Amino acid sequence: MEFKRYRLFVTLAEELHFSRAAKRAGVTQSVLSVQIKRLEEELGVALLNRTTRAVRLTHAGRNFLFEARAVLDRVDESVRVARALAAGKEHVLRVGLTTVAAFSSAPEAIGRFREAHPEIEIQIREMGTVDQESALATNELDVAFLHPPLDHPDIAVHSRRPSRFFGLRRSPATDPARTRQSWRDLLGEPLIFYGRRRAPRLYDEMISSAHALGVSPVIVAEASSFLSAVATAAAGVGTALVPVELTASPPPQTVVVEVPDCPLTLDNGIAYRSYDTNAALNELLDFLRRGPV
Length: 293
Known about the structure:
With 293 residues, the chain is α/β, with parallel strands linked by helices. It folds into 3 domains: 3-82, Winged helix-like DNA-binding domain superfamily/Winged helix DNA-binding domain (Arc Repressor Mutant, subunit A), CATH 1.10.10; 89-160 and 268-290, Periplasmic binding protein-like II (D-Maltodextrin-Binding Protein, domain 2, 3-Layer(aba) Sandwich); 164-265, Periplasmic binding protein-like II (D-Maltodextrin-Binding Protein, domain 2). The protein has 11 helices and 12 strands. The strands form 2 sheets. Strands 3, 4, 5, 6, 7, 8, 9, 10, 11 and 12 form a 10-stranded mixed sheet that branches. A two-stranded antiparallel ribbon has the order 1-2. The protein starts with a helix and ends with a helix. 29% of the residues are buried. The model has no long low-confidence stretch (mean pLDDT 90).
C-alpha cells in the first residue's frame, strides 16, 4: 500500500471536498478519486460517504484517518533522521517528554546539551509514560523523561527529583494569585482528581491519607490528564491537584494553592535501554547527571 494514498486520503479528509483537496495535493480531481477508490478497495471498507453535494467520513474513515496520520508522522520522522545523517550530523537522539516533563527544567537542560554538542540532532516528542516505555522497547525513542515505575526489564531509569502537588482553582481576579492551605482543609473542598484506573498509586495514596485524617474527599470530576485537570479547574468545577510544574503559568482567574503537608508526589525519571551503546545517548546521560534536571 502506497504512502501517497495515505497522504491523499488525509488531505481529502481534512478538506471534505474533492476539488479543493486535489488542488491542495497538486493532482487532478480524477487522479484523487481513483487513488481513494483503490485505497478503499485495498482496505476492503468504505472510507467516505459521497453525495452530489457533500463528502463525509464513515466511521471506518474517521478511525483510519487517525491511524493514517500516525503512520505518516512516523514516516516523516524517519525521513528527517535520514536527512540529518546525510547532512553530516553524527548522531540523532529521539527524546520523549511527558506533559509534566515539558514544563520542568528538562527542555532547558536539553537545550544546554544541544549547544554543547551541535553535531547531535535532537528530536523531541510529547508522549505519555506508557507510550514512551513502549517506544523505548521498540527502538522508536532513545531516551524518555517520564514517571516510573516501569515494567520492561531492559529499560533502566535514572531518578529525578519528584514533583510536589499543588491545588489549582478558579478565583475572582481580585484574589491573590497564590495562597496556602492545609491538606485537611483542601480535602474538604470539591476536588478534581484522577480515577483509580488511570493513576492507581496517586488515587490510593490520596484516599488513604484522607481516611487517616478522618476526611471523606468529594471528587466532583475525574480528569483524564494533568492538563485536563488544569482546564477543569479553570472552568470553576472544583480544586484540581496537579504537579507543581503546571502551576508556574496558571490560566487567568485561577489561584495556585500551596499545600505544604500534601503527601502526594509524582515520581520522575530519565529512562533508556540498558543495553544501548549509542555514543550520543551516553553523552546526554553523562551531561544530565552532572547538572540539575
